[in-house]
Amino acid sequence: SDVAKVVRGTLEAGIPVSGDLRAIETATVRARFDGILQSVNAREGQQVFAGTLLARFESVEQESALKSAEADRLASRSDYESQQWNYDQSKELFKVGAIAERDLRAAQQAAEAARARLAATESRLRIADNVVRDTRVVAPFTGAVATRKVQTGENTLRGAEMFTVVRSGILELAAALSAKRANEVKV
What angle do CA 53, 123, 160 make, to 5 degrees? Predict the structure, then answer.
């Protein structure tokens, strides 16, 4: 058992290196507005995928504002369609001489004002939708939760650090070598 057959092969030499493995990409997830955390769903060390729900803020007020903005858009759209129809009808009546030019211009201005109100309500709707979306705190990429700094029921301020997520698929080694041994290292 202490006899071995000699075989031709490659002889490799190595340098002992010690250091820290660190994630190349780290993201600090912060609160986008002030509010009370309804739930915190992630723990330190937990693997998460991009878009995984980490926490959720209470959102009754924001969802009500969204529903109100949706209703305003519906009303504005209806008003715009009605004013546009009146303007189209006024153009036809003006062509045959049934109404004065000032009535045509008044109908045109009413349609343009209704279009502007519709654009403003659509903008408010997008803002309300973004605020509701911000009540959901999600993982920015696939990785692991390195730190969790919040608890359920906590009142969190805008910009407060909530989680640190690290991309754990690719790591880098941080190690120190003497200058004389550094030339011998190949990746």
Answer: 40
Q: Assign 3-class secondary structure to 104-135.
A: HHHHHHHHHHHHHHHHHHHHHHHHHHHHHHHC
Residue 86 vs residues 24, 114, 155: alpha-carbon distances, Å: 62, 12, 51
Length of the chain: 187
Which residues, including other chains, have CB under 8 Å from residue 120's CB and lie 6 or more apart? 76
3 state DSSP class of 75: helix
74-119 residue pLDDT tens: 999 999 999 999 999 999 999 999 999 999 999 999 999 999 999 9
Q: What is the pLDDT of residues 19-37, one digit of tens each?
A: 888 888 999 999 998 999 9
Measured in whole angstroms, how far is the alpha carbon of residue 95 from the centre of its chain?
52
pTM recorded for the entire structure: 0.70
Residues 6+ apart with CB under 8 A from 94: 101, 103, 104
For residue 17, give the nearest of 170, 180, 176 by alpha carbon.
Answer: 176
Which DSSP letter does residue 83 get?
Answer: H
